[in-house]
Amino acid sequence: MRSMQNTGDKVIKAGLFLLLLIMVFPLFILVADSFMGSRELTEKFGPVLAGTKGMTEFTLLPMYPTLRAYIKLLLDSPEFFVAFWNSVLQTGAVVAGQILVAVPAAWAFARYPFPGKRMLWFLYMLLMILPFQVTMVSGYLVLNAAGLMDTHWAVIIPGVFSTLPVFILRKTFAAIPHEILEAAQVDGAGDLRLFFHIGIPAGKSGIFSIAILGFLEYWNGIEQPMTFLKTESLRPLSLYLPDITVSEAAVSFAASVIMLLPALLFFFFGQEYLEQGIAASGIRE
Q: Is 0.90 topped by the overall pTM?
């Protein structure tokens, strides 16, 4: 019986390892291709990148590794840095705004009764499940009427009032035992003190999780900036990469690697908080 269990564990581990290889392999190819020269890329991937005749050759590592693409990108591409800082500005403002708006909103939904609470929460849930394509036209009209089209605010403001962070934090705050809050109230704690000294520390994992999810979503966002931003100098990295020509495929690979690094670092350093926040959001009262 024990031997069968050990065999089953080995099969599961082997399967998980195979899935890991499948997921990591494209990233490995991306990094490896970023060290290829333009000529080598054309020779090996010409039928895909340039539409030439023949078959695509596949290699794990570059035959003649070079840093030329990174040098050109970092030293001779000022538009890349403009797009990079646009991404930093837009994503950072959205994440900060989501925390400022979602934390008190979720606390109110979790802890206070008020008229129309169920209907308002239903609207939150409805907005959360609607894809961007459904609200794109109405959002465009509102932003245009407010004079915010083709500005950073056109991306930042809709992101700040996203409903997903409120959904995650509401479950997190609702999981705080009532006994703790009642004991604090007996000791004379008011509403603000309960929020700042009990709610925020207890919901720290949920707050970190919405920050990580918000960063990943808006750092890689394409549809919103493509719809609401027309001036190239306002566009983020997610729109900079598709504009790179086929002749500069190596630069495109290098830019993709650099764009990937902040998201990976943000995810790995906050992975524990993300897991705790998602787990807490699934706890029912």
A: no
